[in-house]
Amino acid sequence: MSEGMARFSLDEKVVETLLDPQNKVIMVIGGPDTGKTTLVEELASLFSAQFRVGVVDADIGQSHIGPPTTIAWAPVRGKFSGWEKIKCEDMYFVGTTSPSGNLLPVVTGTKIICDIARQKVDKVIIDTTGMIRGGAGKILKICKIEVVKPQVVLALEREDELSSILRAFKGMRTPLILRISISSKVSQKPYLHRVSYRRRKFREYFKDAQRIVLLRNKLGMRDIRPGVSLYNRLISLKSEEGRDLALGIIDKEEEGGQLSIYTPLDASRKIAAIVLGRVRVDLEGRELP
Ligand SMILES: Nc1ncnc2c1ncn2[C@@H]1O[C@H](COP(=O)(O)OP(=O)(O)OP(=O)(O)O)[C@@H](O)[C@H]1O
Ligand SMILES: [Mg+2]
């Protein structure tokens, strides 16, 4: 077992490749419950001894850095010692908890957040969703790899479920594709565990939320699910530069187009636009139909 990789036995050559400073961006892919996030944790520990490390969390469902529905990154300062110790620096709001029906924002957000991270650190590790199956999963992962251009793709494969994704890059100089075997200790997360995990993340995110009021006709607006009630819609609050500053939950729309919103964002921040997500949640983090 390689030093610094307690839960994966990677051979020395793989570790050497990963530690090569030229291999700056490393993307981890695999189906659900294959150990992707655990591998990202191990890599963050391994790298943080000698590099400035950033983790990009492109898993919009089981998110570890930003709230669910976002792609976010965090720098690892000092030795990586758990997700709760690292702080989200930038995020991109996708607006759904699964890439299905919303592939372009996932690819766009991963690219935007990776570009920010790679300017600030020496090693970027990207965690991804487990959506790899079917035409949508395949095109999602292929396009993500094509646009983000990681130097290395770490593929956690049970049988050959990633082969149609990886075949797209056969014969190419980059990315270098390294297949990693899945640990026998991996455990499956039941669907309800995933829902309650998201609920906890949303609840924590909104625990100190305050009510702010925005004038609807003064704002830029994008709605990814037009026609659905505004009430309890999860939204993103965007700066003039187009950055997603924070999420909010619409409380109500009052007369005169005043939108009342719960958000942890400092009320003094200027909000230029909002993005209305597909998800509806309450302040307890419950996802509503
Ligand atoms: N190498 C390992 N050794 C011991 N336990 C592991 C290992 N890899 C994963 N696990 C355990 O298996 C479970 C699933 O792992 P993990 O969350 O990393 O998978 P994932 O692919 O990121 O899942 P998801 O599809 O939810 O993103 C976790 O409880 C984790 O602690
Ligand atoms: Mg994961």
From TrEMBL:
GO terms for molecular function: ATP binding; polynucleotide 5'-hydroxyl-kinase activity. SUPFAM superfamilies: P-loop containing nucleoside triphosphate hydrolases. One of its GO terms (biological process) is RNA processing. Pfam families: CLP1_P (PF16575). Keywords: ATP-binding, Kinase, Nucleotide-binding, Transferase. The keyword Kinase applies. InterPro entries: Clp1/Grc3 (IPR045116), CLP1_P (IPR032319), P-loop_NTPase (IPR027417). Residues 30-207 form the Clp1 P-loop domain. The keyword Nucleotide-binding applies. This is Clp1 P-loop domain-containing protein.
